[in-house]
Each structure stands twice: as structure tokens, then as C-alpha cells.
Amino acid sequence: MYNDKNSYNQDNRNLSDVFRELQQMQQSAQTTSASHNQKPSRVPRTKKVKKSFGFSSNSEDVVVKNSDLKLSHIIVGCSILIIGLAVFFPKNTSFTQSYAKEEDLEEISEYELNRHRLNMQNIISENADMDRVKEQITEERDIEFETQYNNNPTLPKSEEIVTQEGALGKENVTAVRTYENDNLVEEIILNKEKISDPVAKLIDIGTSEFLAKHQVHIGDTMYFVNTANLKETADDSAKDVAEVKKSLDVKLLELPSEEWCKVSFDSITGYIKTSNLTSAYSTPNIVEKNRIQRILIKVNIDMELNRTSGLTLNDYKKIFTNLPSDTNKIFEDNYTAFYNAEKKYNINGIFLASIAIHESGWGTSQIANDKKNLFGYGSYDATPYESSFDFIDYAEGIDTVAKSLVKYYLNPSGTKIFDGETAAGWYYNGPTLNGVNTRYASDKDWHTKVFKYMETLYNKLDT
Question: How much is the pLDDT for 377?
Fold first, then answer.
């Protein structure tokens, strides 16, 4: 059936070739059968039909008898089966289990169990649903600014202060963007064109341990730990500018070093060592002590008496409690009367109390005991007891004398005083102790004696 010279190499054939040959054979057989049926009287009993199986260029003629069509079909089918087996199973492959290697079967089984099957439907579906878009854009964008830090010895250590705010720069950017399902997945910058430069943000970082310790800044108030002298320069041997009492406040102006600083005491400026300063943070009670010191530095024999002392009611209580010379407790029991007179008539209450102490001998005089008159008010040198005024209590006498001093001795004529009244000023010679002494007492040294009592009372504040 085959031409040995042009035999077909089965190892190189595929299933498509086999089916193509089968189709050609079927078409040839159908042509032969049709010719036989149409002209039975003219067709010979046997006929040579040249059928090409595609096995060689010189295919043999196959003699097909009209009565043997079924047999040819069987032969063709068997041939196809044999060829298919030859293609899919090499010659050295055996189908019996006895010829198969056990380890090869295990490898095939393991491969079949472990290989991952691809779901082509899912792959196609996923790619079909993906919407991938590219676009080119040109837009204005910000350029970030940098932050610069600088050490500052005039700030508390680790404290930061912004000295210059940063500003963003601007640039035009051209780019290609890629989107998948409306999500940006890639951006490629094509070009940048700067519009404006960014401005750096500047931050000062403090390095002063002195300022950090006391939690103060330049311009804040600080207080003297001890009485000391301000210097003209930051040097121990420099000239003294002014003496500053303990607890007094100064304004911090400069910090040239951690050892020295420049301060202002009222209108006087000078240098002092930082070790002699403290703050309200470091010494909480220093503020109250400073208040008292501010009052005490104004106490002098020439101080103006037609104004309040600046003392609180608690200050009065502290001053007049446990005075050694107040044996009858008259002043201790009436400290509120002196405080009220000060507030009501705008007169220094300590000055008022000092006159009472001097005139009554600490409340021990007969006039003070009998007439509740601590001042000898109304007395004349010739008849002091008889001419002096009687009062219901010590508070009434204190109130009366305060009004008299304000109206006639401490203010010039026409000055507006209490209750809408104006001062008469009949005996006014200045609002000081010496001015009052001129017309109030015949003793020329009266003002110095009264001032000593004032110092005694004021000094009780500093105890």
C-alpha cells in the first residue's frame, strides 16, 4: 500500500496532517460512487482510481471495486487509528504497567497534582474590564521651602522662635500621567520651569542656661537676691552706678554672657552678675517682697503725705500687731481705723498713726485714756487737758484728725478732697512732715520725732 522509497516519517507528522489526508480520501471515494450510480452500463466492473494519501509524490493507484466500498472505509479508519497511535505514543512507549517505571509514574502523578491551572476566562475578564488611560498635563506646582536653624544665646536653652516665615516657590510642570480604572498609577515628568524661588523658614534655638533656669526672656522683670551695686560695664572693677536693695525689681535688657547681664533699675542702667538675680519662677515669694521694698524705698522724711501709703489691710495688721510699746493694745485694736482713714481721705495712714503715738505716748496719756483722744486734738499749751476734744471712741478721733489734716495742712487751698469738698489750706506749708510742723506744733523738732515712729512702723513690714 505504501511506497517504500518515499515512506512517510511518522515521528514528524501531526494530527492535522492525518485528518487532512482522511478528508481527501473520503472526497475521492464519494466521487467514485457517484460516477458508478449515474452510468452503470458504461462503467467497467472495476476501475482504477488514483488516490493520493499524501505519503509520497508517487502515490500508488488504488483499485476500488464497486462492491468493496465498505471494506475501503474500514481500511481507511484503521489506518487513521494506527497513524494516530503512532503520533501520540512513540515506539519505545509501552502501555503495559509491567514496562513502566514506578518512579516515572510518581513524577507524572506529582506533576498532575501540583501544577496550577490557568483560568483563562478570569484572565480575559480582568483585562477586558481594565480601563487604562494616559494624559499629558501642564500645571503649576509648589516648591517646598527648607527650614534653617540658628543658635541664639539670648533665648532660653532649647526654646525656638520663628524669625522668618517660610514661603513656597512655584513652578510649571509638564508630565504624562497613566490611570488604570481612574487610579493614578504612574507619572513621568517631562519638563519643569521655575516661576519663583521658595523662601527659607528661619528658626532661632536658644542656648542660654541662665534664662532657661529662671524661665525669663530679654525684657522681663527680675529681682535682686542681695543688695548690690550696678556697674558701668560688665567688670567687677568697673565704676558703681547705683545701689539696688535686696528684692527690688529690675528689667533685663541684654545678656552679653552667661556671667553678666545689663539691667534697668527705674531710669538707671548698668551691669550686674547673673548670679545676683532671681525670678518669680525661681523664687515665688520674691514678688511680695519686692512690693514691700518698693514701698520702703519711698519712705523718707521728705515724702509726700497727701497720698496713700500703698499698704493693704493685711499690711496694717502686720505692722500694728505685737508692737512692744503698745502695752494697752490700743493701736493693735484700731489698725483698721487708720487704714480706713487713709483710703477715705487720701492721707498716709502710717503718718497719721505716728502722730498719735508721739502725742499720746503710745496711748498712755491721760487725755488718750479719758477722752479717747490720741492726738491731743484741740489742746492749747496753757490748758492741754481742759481744751482737748472728747471722742466716743478712738476711731472717731482718728477720723476727725485725718479730715482736719487733709483740709487745712496737707493740701493747698482749692484742692479737691473728700466728699466733693475743697481744701481750705489755712496752714499749708507743703505736704511733708516739715511743712506740717510749721503750723501744727510749737516743737521745731516735731517732724523728726514723728518720722522715727514712721520708720519703726514701716520696718515691721520687712520682718
Answer: 93
Is the same domain home to 271 and 315? no
Rounded (10°) angle between helices 446-459 and 286-296: 180
Which pLDDT score, from 0 to 100, does residue 383 have? 86
The C-alpha cell 482736719 sits at: 404
> Are 288 and 308 members of one domain?
no
Same domain, 235 and 150: no
Q: Mark the ranges of the chain whose per-residue pLDDT is less than 70.
A: 1-76, 79, 84-130
Q: So what's the pLDDT on residue 379?
A: 83
Looking at 39-172, list the stretches that DSSP marks H as alpha helix, in order from N- to C-terminal side. 69-88, 102-114, 120-129
Contacts of 335 (CB under 8 A, 6+ apart): 316, 317, 319, 320, 321
Final residue belonging to a domain, choices 241, 262, 293? 293
Are 330 and 388 members of one domain? yes
Structural domain harbouring 219: 215-293
| Residue 351 shares a structural domain with residue 380 | yes
Strand partners, 203: 149, 162
How big is the CA angle at 314 (ends 226 and 459), to the nearest 5 degrees?
40
Beta-ladder partners of 199: 167
Task: Say whether pTM exceeds 0.70.
Answer: no
Cell numbers found for residue 406: 487733709
For 422, which DSSP code?
A: B
365 and 417 both lie in a single domain: yes
DSSP per-residue codes, 379-412: --SSSHHHHSPP-SSHHHHHHHHHHHIIIIISS-
Is the domain of 346 the same as that of 244? no
Name every residue whose Cβ is closer than 8 Å to that of residue 451 and which is 6 or more positions away in sequence. Answer: 301, 354, 433
